[in-house]
């Protein structure tokens, strides 16, 4: 077929159609058109135009055939509408958290007018708010499974992997174009994140940017390591790692950044991309060592965090130009990272013991300050503080299932009741 010959990207889809529809040569013209032309064309890039030439139509003796051909050619005009519907539905279906209409339009680079017009046709399956700053949602969560199922959905089928790839690329581009040093315009390096109004943070970091910062790695991860080589992530992080961490700091989501870096490290083996793997490992140490500074005073990323980073650190070498000129006396720092990954701060008294949970994901510590604290072993985030003890807690342990904590007090050496976490 000339269409497959002239548009190589269609060959696979046309070939699949002939295998799925045995004896398609004997089907009606309309069915052949939909299976061999319309559906394959829906897979093409929406930004490209294709010219279909129908030759010798006037030489056709059967007027019914001429009428049918003209009718099915008219259907080609609906390709743009169907493709746009698939793009919007696919984007909404694979979102990990709802986005406002205006944010979705920016992410998929479609005009607000086109998005609004398309959403009007989809109100039977979407909750479309009148306010474009409100979030879009599917009426029924099960519809997501339907449109991601090729066998059930037909021409509205959404290729989940392809949809996530496109969105991940859009998120990286959006962050690259938006994130910058001091994005919230706070100026003093000691500006406390807790003192900044949430409304101001939302104004500086729009919903689509916050979503991108939180979920871009998860979308890449869901694509699968075989289809993702990490080059996009590498370019972004080597240019904007500090900007991204700063944004997460203002958002109060530093721990999500740690999890994202760990996810990239796990999905990119060092033997496949050694340079990126080395960079990610160094970035992990940088974030863990400076977690508290990022959480409390995000702009310290460009000051104390870089100043006290080891001299041979890749992060220090790449981003050293961000260190302010007014820092003249730079302390002599060690050349390499030490064995300590991070410091867990929170107790006001002497820590008497620490214990890891059976699965290694949590740490519990007890102290003479009469509290017991539960920590996330990976991110260092304090998960819970247990108070109410009348004296120092000298020992604590996890139950075998990791859900209960028996305590041993100093006075009387009595064990308190089990407390469920």
Cα-based radius of gyration, to the nearest Å: 28 Å
- Secondary-structure element pattern, one letter each: HHHHHHHEEHHHHHHHHHHHEEEEEEEE
Mean pLDDT: 81
What are the low-pLDDT stretches, counting only 5+ consecutive residues below 50? 408-421
Overall number of strands: 10
Describe the largest sheet: 4 strands, antiparallel
Largest beta sheet: strand ordering = 3-4-5-6
Shape: elongated
Helix coverage percent? 40-55%
Q: Strand pairing plus helix content: what structural class?
A: alpha+beta
Distance separating the two termini:
65 Å
Overview of this structure, please?
By secondary structure, the chain is an alpha+beta fold. The chain has 3 domains: about 80-160, Arc Repressor Mutant, subunit A; about 160-320, no CATH class; about 350-420, Thrombin, subunit H (Beta Barrel), CATH 2.40.10. Helix content is about 45%, strand content about 10%. It is built from 18 helices and 10 strands. It has helices at about 1-5, 10-20, 30-40, 65-75, 80-95, 100-105, 110-120, 140-145, 150-155, 160-180, 200-205, 205-225, 230-250, 255-265, 275-290, 290-295, 305, 315-320, and strands at about 125, 135-140, 350-355, 360-365, 370-375, 380-385, 395, 405, 405-410, 420. The chain has a 4-stranded antiparallel beta sheet, with no helix packed on it. Strand 3 and strand 4 form a beta hairpin. Helix 14 (about 255-265) runs antiparallel to helix 15. The protein is elongated, with a radius of gyration of 28 Å. The protein starts with a helix and ends with a strand.
